[in-house]
What does this fold into?
Amino acid sequence: MNRLKQLIGKFGMAFLLLLFISSCMDDTPSIPLGEFEKGVLIMNEGAFGANDGEVFHYDPTSGEIKSSIFESKNGRPFAGLIQDMVAAEGRLFLVANTGKVEVVDRRDFSSMGAVTSGLDISRSLVVANQKMYISDWGAYDANFNSPDSYVAVVENLNGGEVSKKIPVSSRPEGMFVAGDQLLIACTAGQKLDVVPLNTEEKTKSLEVTGRPTLFFEEGGRLYLYARDGENVYFHEINRSLAEITGTITVNLPLSTSNFALTDNGEMLIITSTGWPDYNDAIAMVNISSGQVLNGAIFTGSGFYGIGFHKAREEIYVADNNGFQGNGTVIILDRDGQQQKTFLAGRGPSGFKFN
Amino acid sequence: MLVCLIFLFQGFHTLSLHADFNESAVDSLLVSSVWLAKETRVDTVGLEVVEVFSPSLDKYTYGQKINTIGEDNLGDFQGLGLSELLQQRTGLFLRQYGPGMLASLTMRGTSAGHNAVFWNGLPINSPSLGQTDFSILPVGAFDEVQLHFGSGGALYGTDAIGGAVHLNSKLKFGQGHSFQTDSNLGSFGRWNQQLQYDFSNDRISSRTRAYRNVAENDFPFRNLSKPGTPIERQEHAAFQQEGFTQDLAFQVKSDHLISSSFWLNQTKREIQPVMGSSTRDMQQDRNMRWVLDYFNFAGNKTWNFKTGWVQDQLTFNGSENNTSQFFLIGDLDWEINPKISSKSGVRYTHVQGRLSTYAAKENRIELYQSTNLHLREDVNVSINLRQFIYDGTLAPFTPSLGAEWKIFAQAQNEIKLHANGARSFKIPTLNDRFWEPGGNRDLLPESSWSGELGFSYLFKKEDLQVNQQLTHYRMWVDNWIIWMPRGSFWSPENIREVQNTGLEYTLDAIYKIGSWGLEIQGNYNWVRAINQTNISENDRSIGMQLPYTPIHKFQSLLGVNRGLLQSYINYHFTGSRFVTSDNISQLPAYALWDWGLRVGEWEVGALKGRLGFQINNVLNTAYEVLRLRAMAGRNYQLNIHIRL
It folds into this structure.
């Protein structure tokens, strides 16, 4: 008994000492990072008709891979095709192009809610004014066109009903909140749509060269990525005016809309030759000059997503393995030399580096 | 003890054709039936033998396995898709996308398009899709189903790599007038209704059918895609089907026979979305089939000239796809002497496709030769040869050699050995070759070699009959076509090689104790379908089981009858299925119990009838055949059959 008291006393003193030291060091004690707030999240789109999209987690330090973390945490399958994965407000929004958004706690992937109705072919999401704005192609018509595209508004960040649908040009993809305006890249319509957040009505629709897909920031500037059969276009956007102020044209035939930014002003873009060879490659482009630095730093087939781990200076390439089974993640060094491969989920298509 | 009671069986039975030509046209046909086809039961239960027309598609099949499902056993599934019957009452596995939704058959571990489907001798697989949706073939529109297991390319032509399914009309002469109505009322808005009128005298036989099958399909299921996985009613899965058939036979003279069948079938479906999707797809299938046969019986020769037309229209969300096939077939079936019979023929097919993205035309010619050799009283051999030419391209030459040997025969016991080796093929579908974008005109036909060896055992006493059959097979399929994502679209390629190995076991037993009758029927299929190729450096499919191909499937039915009452319990177990070709994830196995009661055939004045009541999925088991495709829980069904 005395020994127990001694132990408690010793540990008690040690605890008080640690508390004192830590309180002197930092007035705001740090909250430990959640299980999935560090490492790499791998977005696996899933196969058409199978709705087997999932998220895997990879720890680049230990090499440990955790598969199907949504189902593991929540005891039910994701049941959708994951199109985008957006972090905001402590949440991770998993956007399914099968008409669903799942909201999970960014720390441990526990479900916080979902939008399960009112969507058709949802593509991406941004958060502004504590609301979700979800780009959606709308239902196809008989010719598989998307004339009824919209941006859906959901008032609660934990999901619920769609409160409003803002009609936009055909096939909206990436979005960007610039001040109090929502910028929307509409691929099929080849438009940059502008929607003020206070009115939630489209006020402007700008012609865009190429098919626009995503926005990106580089060197403090905002660009819209677009492409056609011959070129890639970086359309620079004035945020306050919501206007295109200039365009950098990159002569890169066979480009795709899959790209990643490195840590020194370069962009990595997946290219694909198509018929009959179907050779895929990764091109490296200087963003400010539009110059193709290397048309193929790495080649293969089935490239379906790309990312760049800035801290580790590694390129992550997602290989879909023809959707015949699960995909593969290939890790390259920044020169394109293969370092490692590991198993991903079905149709890996993107990464989120923490 | 149970094993001791089980004996191997091989059944011969004779399909008696019309009296005027049965002696010369067909002798004995090999049929081992899970259903104990009508003729097989004659010896023990005394059912009446009737004169029927029957195409001789299965005549030259010594050494091969064929099961027959007769009309007696189709009644429980009146108006339901053939897929439901095959899934619940055989050892076959069908990939079902929901109740009443697309159902494709896999035989001996092959894929959906690797089985040929015939209606009255015409191949009806869609030339654009290369397969048949078994959910829209309503039970009741045909009188008999024959399942041919294993390669039948030499006998049937393209697609029959894993097997073949034959849907046959069976007409009767000399029956007079009769009117028949069949109703099937069930859970979730099911109402199947069929009307039938028959007339026949000594020379003419006619049967007219009209049917309408509807189901709301709003069954409850656990929605795994939503937080809290709530129980919901299935939406957007309604099914509506209408159809009409007309069968005619005319005995022109004693040695001339003309027969014809016509089938119009239309199905409108809301396509049940996969869990997690809110799609509102609509599909309408319209199928028109017509066949005309002329038979000439000249001594020991039977000439058959056949023509037919099959037109399919599939409209998916307003996008229309049309295909048509026109057939001209002629063959001579010749009993050369008591030991040798031969059939030589040619089949011409003109195929047209007007699909949403392309149009195509094609001519196909097939030459075939079949020979039966009755080497000894107890040894029979079938040799089949076929050469198929499409669009000027030679498909693989397909021979087959089968033999059957009655090893042991006594009054109560009979043991047979059967063996068969065959080559089969499947030509690329129109979509494979011409779909825009992605169609690949350079595709080669898929081809296979297979071999099988089996035993059958029949034990027969006055009050007990036990039939068993055990078959082992091996198959090698090469140039298997897979659609691969290529840039912005998908394109088919001859990529895969697959080796299949399996065991098939069937048991049928009938036991009579006084006024009581007992029936046991069982099927067990063990299938290994192993991929031999990786499609890319990072692929992990080699050495793995093909997706959605259960290694085990077991089915068993135990029935008891007394007088007009019959009750049965049916059980089927489907083993786990891998979801993807790398076998990383799998769906759990499931087992379902069904219970049924039949009353009849009773007579009230001129009326005759049968009543049936079934509870399907008695234990309300939640299961998925394919991942995230909801299936119905416990459901009820009432069948009413009245004949005047």
Notes: The longest helix of chain A spans residues 2-25. Chain A touches chain B through 50 residues (CB under 8 Å). Chain A has two helices and 28 strands.
